[in-house]
Structure formats: structure tokens, C-alpha cells
Amino acid sequence: MTSRIVSGLMIVLFGLSLTVQSAFATGNLDCAIDDRQVSFELFALTGGAGGIVQVNQGSIEIKIGDDKSLRSKRTIELKHIEQQWIYGKELRIRFGIANDKDEPIASLILIGAYNADKDSYAGQYVLSVPQAGEEKQFKGRMKCG
């Protein structure tokens, strides 16, 4: 009798370990923008809870704004993700863009909706940069797969 209980518990624990592992599966998130306002690329891994857990490669080059120092190509790292929401059919990520002294100078927000047929998120971005003494927003199309 005791051996049956132990065998049953072992089967339950083994099955539970398989379901827990699948809950923490990772996925790829690749995003790209290249228009007259900004060039942006991101190759990242997402965790089972839906957030970005690792940035493999990322860069941004802002092509607009009064400040010429904005226009250099910058590396995007995990620390630049200020807010993120990747859940269900919705993707929202905010990146803080910093200068060489790690001071914030701009921000990029990606807002996308999931398309199951294309297995990707499509939507718009909002780029905020200082211009003429105030913050100005520029919008365009984005896609993440």
C-alpha cells in the first residue's frame, strides 16, 4: 500500500515539474523600425511571464531633433527598458535613451497588437525628444516578431 502511494506521488511530482518548466519557457522578440525619424532594432528573449529577460542586441539612432548629439547610434541594453507589458495580444515597451553620461535625453515607446496569422505584433511607436526647448513627440509604424 505504501509503495503505491509513493509511486503515485512520484508520478504527480514528475508531471508537476513538466508543467512548471513549460510555464517558464522563453521566446524571441525581434523589433525593427527604420524611417526618416529613427532607426531601431532589438533582438531579445522573453520569459514565461511575458517580459524581456535578456537583450541580445539592440540599437537606436535618432534622426531628428535640435540636439545633434542625439543623432549618434546608441546601444540598447536591458537597463534601458523602463516599462514593459507583453501579455495576451498586447505589447507595450518604453525605452529610456541616455547620453554618454547615462542621463536621460529621449524615450521610445512601442505599442503593438498581436496578429496570430503573422505571429507578430504591429502598431506604432512614439519617440519623444527635446526640441525648441520642449519635448516633442514623433510617431510612426513598428513591428515586432
Structure description:
With 145 residues, this protein is α+β, with helices and mostly antiparallel strands. The protein has a single domain (24-144), classed as Avidin-like (Lipocalin, Beta Barrel), CATH 2.40.128. The chain has 1 helix and 9 strands. The chain has one helix spanning 2-23; strands at 27-34, 38-46, 52-62, 74-75, 81-87, 90-98, 104-115, 120-131, 134-144. The protein has a 9-stranded antiparallel beta sheet, with no helix packed on it. Strand 2 and strand 3 form a beta hairpin.
Keywords:
single chain, 145 residues, alpha+beta, Lipocalin, nine-stranded antiparallel beta sheet, globular
Approximate shape = globular
CATH topology (level 3) name: Lipocalin
Order of helices and strands: HEEEEEEEEE
Cα end-to-end separation: 53 Å
Tell me the number of helical segments per DSSP (H or I, 4 or more residues long). Answer: 1
CATH superfamily: Avidin-like
Can you count the beta strands?
Answer: 9
As laid out across the biggest beta sheet, the strand order is 4-3-2-1-9-8-7-6-5
Q: Regarding CATH, which class? A: Mainly Beta
- Average predicted confidence as pLDDT: 84
Strand count, sense and barrel status of the largest sheet are:
9 strands, antiparallel
Estimate percent helicity: 10-25%
Tally of structural domains: 1
> Which second-level CATH architecture applies?
Beta Barrel
